[in-house]
Write the structure tokens for this entry.
Amino acid sequence: MTLLVTGGAGYLGSELLRQEPAALSTLHDTLDVNDGDAVMRCFLKHGPDVVIHTAYQMGDAETNVRGAYNVALAAHRAGARLIHLSSDLVFDGVHGAPYTEDDEPRPILEYGQQKLEAEQLVARIHPGAAIVRTSLLYGPPDGPQEALARHDDVEFHRDEIRSPIRVRDLATALLELAGRDFAGILHVAGPEALSRTDFAERLRGAPVRSRLTPPGRPRNVALDSSRARRLLHFRHHF
């Protein structure tokens, strides 16, 4: 199986390549996913059997939406299976967490809206794609959440609930999914619903500053990953 990983320089992409050294990688600085022609040439050149699309850019709608469209179109035309990464932030946090794959997305953040738009494009262009929603990623190796927890001046929201998952566990699950014939939406996140404050304190091993979630941000977007645990063999370790 020839595996292609977009966003190989990122936190998740790097872990996928660590676990699967033979995989091909299209780093964002050498392949602009916003360039549809370049993406198509890359896919036709390498002929991947499976593509795991992890490339994204916080605050960049072009990369998050148009980039996802280009990758989905190229994967479909190249006859490759596609695993597209999405987010728990497609939910609003007030309509029934933990959210299942059948719950209606209602994003209230711009980033969540971008990820939902990308999901819809991917599903339409590549009906055989797997769309994986996940949550906060942490190490080892240490990643952005660990770095954030070490900052003394950061206030964490004590009523914002997420489902953190170790980056190694998510990568393992995605690689297993790459070998399965699954299409549709799948939640792959940690089994424990934690506030941002509790999560940061676990990572830091000490108390952190906290406050209530400000208006306009989702509160409880915990994900129900029971479908993934029935389908896959991955295990979560905090």
